[in-house]
Design a protein that fits this description.
single chain, Inosine-uridine Nucleoside N-ribohydrolase, Chain A, Immunoglobulin-like, nine-stranded mixed beta sheet, 31% helix, binds calcium ion
Length: 764
């Protein structure tokens, strides 16, 4: 009996640790929509957001569709619709479908031809949506990212242009042509160049085309099947880009849309919910479409001569290219009844699909301390060897996502990673299909050859200047383990330098530098599963508490502050993580305060190197110090090892001499970009590369090099003493670095940038 029991117990343990089959098979999807185009986008969004048994909706990106003034007369109810209107409608659809946590990103007002020259920048018209597609495409997963484009292809084409390395990780599905009719209509005419770019894509990205499925539904059916259907939301949400009446369920909105928009004849005889029908091809082909693989055709435009009601039909001819090695697949002839039956069933038996774990933990961190956190691991993790995660506190019914596609349940979980890499482990609670993150750990899974490598977490106001970009590239091309990259503001009071939009701009620049690095052919030593994740950080400084006591400071809880805690939890105690803030210290200061709330001894697992501060104090002759001086004081008081590489004079001494150094940059896209921004920044023949010194310092420290030539043990004084440095004799956690061997550091930087990173052997 005893044997049987223990057998049962171990069987149960095995079952618990087996990745959930359903979670494995779900399709990762981004919905790219011109939501306010007609009435079908809204139905497609609802269909996807309610099909959680099949889709994981990672986000909604918004495109401009094909709206232009000529169409207004045909569409008095919708009028001329702008990208902002499409965006508003998409946001409201997510709310109405009880999925308001699904990110909605705005795409461009312009088209591919107008924007493509700008895609070389971190921010441009539509970069929010484009950067999101790139970021999600690179997110660690063994499942490809599907993009269902139900408008024009501007966002998709720009993402592939900006970062061609996403091509093998994504599958494009486009609902947008009347193939083989000889004209381009709506979604195609909305951006002819974007379609051409996809048809000719040199990376041969998977491209599925769903010609308009004209399969109609009558108003009687809609009224009978949709009224009151779908989850009820409170408060009710206005439809029609926020201008219409409020609706407490999508079903009611569906009836309203159909009633107001669809003409009498179509109400009686049927109108196709085109984008919704097309989605059935992706939903395990529930629509029974017939796929035709073929050489990519080309569309030859003719002069646009038609006006008025036909203006949306752009004349041209489809030319078949049967032997074209570039292949596409057309999905045609769906089974009308199968699609609508599944759609109506889904309305009655919805499973929310927007429950993918987002990295945004800001709204949950507040109760993380009492709900349970992951206990920091106690040694290095090796591929092929088990690691056990346990919890502090009691989150009730803990669920785990282990970062390699595996899931598990229970207060203690043992798992074996098969491949070395960087993994993000998340513990959370589940309400229905909804997963709420409670705590996370970033884990470097090693081979015995890599356990000694220093680990860094970058933290950067990437676009405020030109040195951050050098610092990111240096980190990636070096042999350091880069666990993540945090974004942060650079003084939101600086309205001339991005103001409130800074964090978003800086995040975009990080994505941009990563894209250039991936295309530079120098990341062979850093396979994709060892690339860093990117986290959104604070967009405002810490506030000085009324008491003046640093312990009363409210942290700004963000993905980035959580990432610092997560990196610390996943670090082996004998190999603390170097956190390298090269902007204000808001993220690190917040992490310190959060750790105190959780009772987590962060100081034992991290070391901090901040690039900032002036000769005498935090916030004079220091851009980074001025942007959040209180955060520097908090970090100084925390007891954590805190190295301060003074912005002036120390960081400034590591300077580019354009007369000699510009020729040393590598001949690749990244090198070109770094040279370009260095030239644009100023006409001066020299330019300080401040932030770069932090990476050099970690490398120099590992090698035992004496690259820090004058260090002063100090304290950081508070605002009542003008945030001054105070030199001290006794033990202290704060070290002010006043002088460095800048030439040695710069030499290491350029050697690394050119593909010969310094080898980092185990220390003796
Ligand atoms: Ca559409
Ligand atoms: Ca910086």
């Amino acid at each position: 009996m005893k044997t049987c029991l223990s057998l049962l117990v171990s069987l149960a343990a095995v079952l618990l640790l087996t990745p959930t089959a359903a979670a494995q098979e779900k399709m990762r999807i981004i919905l790219d929509t011109d939501a306010m185009a007609e009435v079908d986008d809204q139905h497609a969004l609802a269909y996807a957001l309610f099909s959680g048994d099949h889709f994981e909706v990672e986000g909604i990106t918004v495109n401009r569709g094909s709206d232009y003034p000529e169409r207004t007369e045909r569409r008095p109810y919708f009028g001329t619709v702008t990208i902002d209107d499409h965006y508003k409608e998409a946001v409201n659809m997510a709310r109405m479908c009880a999925s308001s946590d699904v990110p909605v990103l705005k795409g461009p007002a312009g088209n591919y031809r107008q924007i493509k020259g700008d895609s070389n920048h971190s921010t441009f018209d539509g970069s929010g949506a484009v950067n999101f597609i790139i970021e999600r495409a690179h997110a660690p997963s063994d499942r490809p990212l599907h993009i269902y484009a139900m408008g024009n292809l501007t966002n998709v084409a720009l993402a592939l242009l900006k970062d061609p390395t996403i091509a093998p990780k994504i599958e494009i599905w486009w609902m947008g042509t009347e193939w083989p009719q000889n004209y381009a209509c709506n979604n195609h005419a909305g951006d002819l160049d974007a379609v051409d770019a996809l048809l000719a894509n040199p990376q041969n990205v998977a491209f599925n085309i769903i010609p308009w499925p004209h399969k109609g539904v009558t108003f009687a059916e809609i009224k009978g099947k949709m009224t009151g259907r779908g989850p009820r939301v409170s408060p009710a949400v206005p439809g029609l880009r926020g201008e219409g009446p409020d609706f407490a369920s999508f079903g009611d909105y569906s009836v309203h849309l159909f009633d107001k928009f669809v003409g009498a004849r179509q109400k009686e005889h049927g109108r196709s919910l085109l984008d919704m029908v097309g989605l059935a091809a992706l939903k395990n082909n529930v629509g029974e479409f017939t796929p035709y693989e073929m050489g990519a055709p080309s569309f030859v435009v003719e002069e646009a001569s038609q006006t008025g009601s036909q203006a949306h039909r752009y004349p041209g001819t489809w030319v078949e290219n049967a032997d074209n090695p570039r292949r596409v697949t057309m999905w045609r002839d769906p089974n009308r009844d199968a699609v609508y039956t599944d759609f109506f069933n889904t309305m009655d038996n919805y499973v929310l699909a927007g429950s993918v774990p987002t990295k945004d933990v800001s709204h949950q961190a507040a109760y993380a301390a009492r709900a349970g956190t992951i206990v920091p691991i106690d040694g290095p993790v090796l591929a092929g060897e088990p690691v056990t995660f346990t919890l502090k506190g009691n989150p009730g019914d803990p669920h785990w996502q282990l970062g390699d596609g595996s899931t598990a349940e229970g207060a203690s979980v043992t798992h074996t990673y098969q491949e070395p890499g960087v993994y993000r482990v998340v513990m959370g609670s589940k309400v229905g299909e909804k997963f709420n993150e409670l705590s996370s750990a970033i884990l470097r899974v090693h081979t015995p050859e890599t356990v000694h490598l220093p680990q860094v977490l970058l933290d950067t106001d990437a676009r405020n200047e030109i040195d951050d970009q050098h610092y990111i590239a240096y980190g990636l091309f070096s042999n350091l383990d880069v666990l993540g990259i945090n974004s942060i503001h650079h003084g939101p009071f600086r309205s001339d330098r991005g103001g409130q939009a800074q964090e978003q701009m800086n995040y975009g620049e990080i994505i941009h530098i990563l894209a250039l690095c991936r295309q530079s052919d120098l990341l062979k030593h850093r396979p994709e599963n060892q690339m860093p994740l990117v986290f959104h950080g604070s967009n405002l400084p810490l506030e000085v508490p009324a008491s003046g006591n640093w312990l009363d400071t409210q942290p700004v809880k963000t993905e980035a502050s959580e990432a610092i805690l997560a990196a610390a939890r996943g670090a082996s105690p004998d190999n603390p993580v170097w956190v390298l803030p090269v902007g204000p210290c808001t993220n690190i200061g917040s992490a310190i305060l959060q750790a105190r709330e959780e009772g987590f001894d962060l100081a034992s697992r991290i070391k901090i190197i901040w690039l900032g501060g002036g000769p005498e104090q935090v916030n004079v002759r220091s851009f980074n110090g001025t942007n959040d001086p209180w955060s520097v004081y908090v970090t100084g008081r925390s007891g954590a090892e805190f190295w301060i590489l003074l912005e002036n004079p120390t960081g400034a001494s590591l300077a580019l001499d354009k007369r000699t150094d510009l020729g040393v940059y590598p001949d690749n896209k990244l090198g070109d970009y770094l040279v370009a921004i260095s030239n644009i920044w100023s006409k001066s023949p020299t330019k300080a590369l401040y932030d770069v010194a932090t990476i050099s310092m970690v490398i120099g420290n590992h090698l035992g090099k004496g690259w820090l030539t004058l260090v002063e043990p100090s304290e950081v004084l508070g605002p009542d003493q003008e945030y001054r440095w105070k030199k001290v004799e006794g033990p202290t956690n704060v070290q002010i670095i006043r002088e460095i061997d800048a030439e040695a550091m710069k030499a290491d930087f350029f050697t690394t940038l050119n593909g010969n990173p310094t080898e980092l052997k185990p220390r003796q």
